[in-house]
Write the structure tokens for this entry.
Amino acid sequence: MKFFFFHLMPYGALDMDYLDKHESPWVTLPNSYYDPKKGFELYHRYLDELELADQLGFDGICVNEHHQTAYGMMPAPNILAGALSRRTTNAKICVLGRALPIIEEPITIAEEFAMLDNLLAGRFIVGFVRGIGCEYHASGANPAFSLERFREAHDLIIRAWTEPGPFEFEGKHFHLQYVNCWPRPYQDPHPPIWVPTQGSLETVEWAAHPDRKYNYLLTFSPIKSVQSNMDNYRRVAEDYGYESTPDQLGWATPIYVAETDKIARKEAEEHIENFFNKFLYSPMEYKMPPGYSSLNSYKKVMEQKMRVRMKHLSFDNLIDEGMFVCGSPASVVEILQKREHDLKFQNLVAMLQFGTLSAEMTDKNLRMFANEVMPKLQSSAPQGAHEAAPAAE
């Protein structure tokens, strides 16, 4: 198993009574709730936590992109990845991920990521996403074109990284007379690509295609949904004529470790409930705007995931649904070993800071996870695991 520390960089100073007046921390929460002085402190605290994960031996540290929300203060994750490039030495830096359909010039992503790949001498992993529904409200992008813009932007970026320039690109949504990416990526043919997902049918079929075989990363989902989607990836790969392997699969989940199960619950309960019920909450029309997904994918996500996410989630609900791992080191190791056996995945993306979790508790969580959980699991590998295949050109 490989371990990645994923940080959302939430605005942890948010007044938790905001729901009395506003329906969501996404898009419409007035930015008067944001105090730049507290933001300054949080940004530097969070960068310190990511740098600590590098020192503790994590395989990777992860940032991502969200807009107009207290859920995650990272509208430009490339800036944070650049800051981390000079202060880390071992862990891969993962941008999981950039929302391609809401940008007007994908060539800028190709250039920024190629530059980061050079700065990091190849310690770089790319995540490409369509962006959750809220991003379309925040950006004004038309969700009906989400899928086709995503695929066209992806194709433009891959060609920019792998084909000698200059060349012309003429698509339905993007038009460039000159594509001539400077600098070129450090990794050949380009950085590894991951696809964080909510589980849409279109995404699994696209990610598993033999031309790509991208890492398929399930995020913040009930464990039954994770199992179903990973099984579906394997079925799709088989239909394409190959056997997928555990290094193509990843699971992202919040985790908290303390001295005993009782202490872990006492310390984490309020913060994980804040995360799922307040930071993560948004109305369904924000999450799934019309045209964003096909009818079949919409039904699948609703049945497997949103039926759980749209209700109040207590600590016990989250544990029962397999959406949160919490306990003593021995308990957490046992749970993760079972998940590894059942899901047959290799990449664990651990969210060890969530919502209002304090700096002191995050530091404790990071150190206990790294020192008392990771060593028990690092040597284990599901049958069939191998080094990740290079992405196809």
